[in-house]
TrEMBL record:
Protein name according to UniProt: Copper chaperone CopZ
Top-level division of the source organism's lineage: Bacteria
InterPro entries (alphabetical): DUF3347 (IPR021782), HMA_dom (IPR006121), HMA_dom_sf (IPR036163)
Organism: Algoriphagus boritolerans DSM 17298 = JCM 18970
Domain HMA, chain residue ranges per copy: 19-84
Length: 298
C-alpha cells in the first residue's frame, strides 16, 4: 500500500508543475464524503486532494502559479464540507446525504458578533474562519455591498481587459486587417497572462482553469499570423471559451452572441459583439451582414 501511495504521489507531482503541498483538516464522515471532497478540490494539472476519513486530514498538492489552498478549500466548502479555514454554506451542508452530515465543530465554536443578523442570506458563500472578528468582512460585505455583488465586481475587474481585447481583435477581423488583428491578439495574450486567478469567484475560477489554455493557444495563433483568413480559423476557437466566461460575468454590459451560418463550409461559427447589428468578422466586407444574434447575454 505504501508503494502504491508513493507511486500515486509521484504521478500527481509529474502532472502538476510548480508543486506545493499542504495538509489541512476537512470535516466529513465516510467514503462518500471522501469522493465528494476530492472531486470538489481536484482540478486537472492544477490541484489534487487526498482526504483520509479516519484522520480528517487532507493532503493538497497544487501548482502555486495556478491556484492556492484557499481557492481549493472554497470549492470544497461550496460542496458542503467545513475545514479549519472555511465554513461550508448552510444550504450546501443541508444537501449532503444523512450519512455525510458530520458534526459541525467549527460552526458551533464560531463566535459571530451581532448574532441577531440572519446567516441564511449569506448561506451561498463560504465563510472564512479567521474573519469572525468582523462579521461584515467575513461575509464579504464591503461598503454596504452584498457578497454576490462583490464577487461579480471582482470577476468583471479581472476579466474585463480580456473581454475588451477580444472585441478589439474582432473589430480588426471585421475590417479584414490582419496586421491589426495580430497586434491586438498580442495585447489579448498579455491580458490573459495578467489575470489574478485568486480574485475570481469559484465558479468563474473553475471555468477559467479549463478554458485558459484554449484562450491562450488561439490568441497566440492569431498573433503569429497576419493573414485574416488564417486568423479567422483561430478566432472561432477563441470565441467559444470567451462566451462561457462572459456568461458568468454578470456585470459586463449587454453582449450579443452571434452566428455566421456560412463559415467553415456551412458548419457555422459564432462570435461575441457589443452591438446588436451584424458585422461579420469571418467574411468582413464580403458578407458583412451575414449572420444573426442567437443569444443576448446580460
Amino acid at each position: 500500500m505504501a508503494i502504491m501511495a508513493l507511486l500515486s504521489s509521484t504521478a500527481i507531482n509529474a502532472q502538476i508543475k510548480n508543486t506545493k503541498t499542504e495538509s489541512v483538516k476537512i470535516y466529513g464522515n465516510c467514503q462518500m464524503c471522501e469522493a465528494t471532497i476530492e472531486k470538489a478540490g481536484n482540478v486537472k494539472n492544477a490541484a489534487e486532494v487526498d482526504w483520509n476519513k479516519e484522520t480528517k486530514m487532507a493532503t493538497i498538492t497544487y501548482d502555486a502559479n495556478l491556484t492556492n489552498p484557499d481557492e481549493i478549500l472554497k470549492r470544497i466548502a461550496l460542496a458542503g464540507y467545513d475545514s479549519d479555514q472555511f465554513l461550508a454554506p448552510d444550504k450546501a451542508y443541508a444537501m449532503l446525504s444523512e450519512c455525510c452530515q458530520y458534526e459541525r465543530i467549527n460552526k458551533k465554536e464560531a463566535i459571530i458578533p451581532n448574532s441577531s443578523m440572519k446567516m441564511e442570506k449569506h448561506s451561498e458563500q463560504p465563510v472564512k474562519m479567521e474573519s469572525h472578528a468582523n462579521h461584515g468582512a467575513e461575509m464579504g460585505i464591503i461598503n454596504g455591498e452584498k457578497p454576490a455583488e462583490n464577487m461579480q465586481m471582482q470577476n468583471a475587474g479581472e476579466l474585463q481587459p480580456i473581454f475588451d481585447r477580444y472585441f478589439e481583435v474582432k473589430d480588426a477581423l471585421v475590417q479584414s486587417d490582419g496586421k491589426l488583428a495580430s497586434t491586438r491578439a498580442k495585447a489579448l495574450l498579455t491580458a490573459i497572462s495578467k489575470v489574478k486567478m485568486g480574485e475570481l469567484e469559484p465558479k468563474t475560477h473553475d471555468v477559467w482553469m479549463v478554458k485558459m489554455k484554449a484562450l491562450s493557444e488561439n490568441a497566440e495563433k492569431i498573433s503569429d499570423s497576419t493573414d485574416p483568413d488564417d486568423q479567422r480559423v483561430y478566432f472561432s476557437g477563441l470565441s467559444q471559451p470567451m462566451y462561457e466566461l462572459m456568461k458568468l460575468s454578470t456585470t459586463v454590459p449587454t453582449v450579443y452572441y452571434q452566428k455566421c451560418p456560412m463559415y467553415n463550409n456551412g458548419k457555422g461559427a459564432n462570435w461575441l459583439s457589443k452591438e446588436s447589428s451584424i458585422k461579420n468578422p469571418y467574411y468582413g466586407s464580403k458578407m458583412m451582414t451575414c449572420g444573426s444574434t442567437v443569444e443576448k447575454i446580460n
